[in-house]
Amino acid sequence: MIELFDEDFDAIELVDGALILNKAVAPETQVYWAEQEIARLLKEAEQALVHESNEKQRFESLLRLFYREWGFCGDIDAYFSSENAFIDKVLERRKGIPVSLGSILLYLSRKLGFPVEAVTFPTQFLLKLTWPGEVAVYINPYDGEYVSTSTLRAWLIGHEGTLAKLKPKHLAVADNPTVIGRWLALLKSALLREEKYTLALRCTDLALTFVPDDPYEIRDRGFIYQQLDCHQIAVSDFEYFIEQCPEDPAIELLKNQVSAMSETLITLH
């Protein structure tokens, strides 16, 4: 497993960090091909925008190029597929989710000189566009549409409840480690849903290089080991979680699972 630290991600573009993450989880990730494809798209975009002098119109042209001509779009049919979290697959299929589509569009935008930044809104990844002297606007990378403040409020209420208030922290610019951390959690969830436990375990191991003692990550690792029939390790991880988080609602269920697995281990020995 590759050990990655926050400063590594801060020093590179988000899409490059995503490719490092992808390869750490799935070694067969086509990193070189993805890098070459992104470089090709950037060159094509530069050529398409070369005669456009107005910056705002240039950016609108980039959006049209990305979503209409190149055909990038949100994966409506299989939103939770793990393929949507792997950059090479997104480039190949031209389908993804906000964070994967957004990381590619963010890279192209920044290379073309547009003032675009990443935002990890509670419900999804957004792009923040701030023209000099103007109020920031927000773009949903899933479809390339601008998102109004009222829509953001509605999303937040749907996520946190009717008393939720839209605050500046919700729209703060996110650093790469924060985005990569959420990306990793999303990828792990997708792989667990698909019962790809070996790959999900790599996600957990990678997450624990950032926060080695995270009890929830260790609990998830225990669940994965349980599915892989590595019950002794699973019991150890579950016991750690029970000790660290005694008030968690899932404690009684975990205690029962630990008891059952422990009896099995005793029987086997």
TrEMBL record:
One Pfam assignment: TPR_9
Record domain Protein SirB1 N-terminal: where: 34-184
Highest taxon, organism lineage: Bacteria
Gene3D superfamilies: Tetratricopeptide repeat domain
Similarity comment: Belongs to the UPF0162 family.
Protein name: SirB1 family protein
Species of provenance: Vibrio gelatinilyticus
Organism placement in taxonomy: Bacteria, Pseudomonadati, Pseudomonadota, Gammaproteobacteria, Vibrionales
